[in-house]
Specification:
With about 110 residues, the chain is of the alpha+beta class. Helices cover about 35% and strands about 15% of the residues.
Length: about 110
Amino acid sequence: MAPHQRRPAIGPDENRSVSISELALRRAVTPGTLDSRPRLLSREGAAEYMSTSSRTVQRLIEAGKLPVVKLPVERGANGVGQAGVSRRVLIDRRDLDALIDNYKETQR
C-alpha cells in the first residue's frame, strides 16, 4: 500500500480513515513516550504517588518540606464570589520527585 493511501481507522470513529504515516505516529507514541499523568496532584493523589498516607503528605507540607500550589481563582462576569486564591491544595509531581531524590539512601 502506498504512503498516500488510506486505511480504515482504528478506534471508535470507524467512518474516518487515517494515513499510514498517522498510524505509524500512533504506534511511535507509546504510553512511556508522552506523560499523560497530571502534573498537579491532590494530597490524596500525592500520597498514592509516593505510596504513603495523605496524613504523611500533610505532615511534610506542615514541616515545610513539601511546597504546595494554590492557583488563582477568577470569578464569573456576573460578579458572584470573590477573586483570590483557591482553597484547594495541590502538589507538583516535580516537587514530589525532588523530595524523593533528597531522601534516597544508599546501602553500605
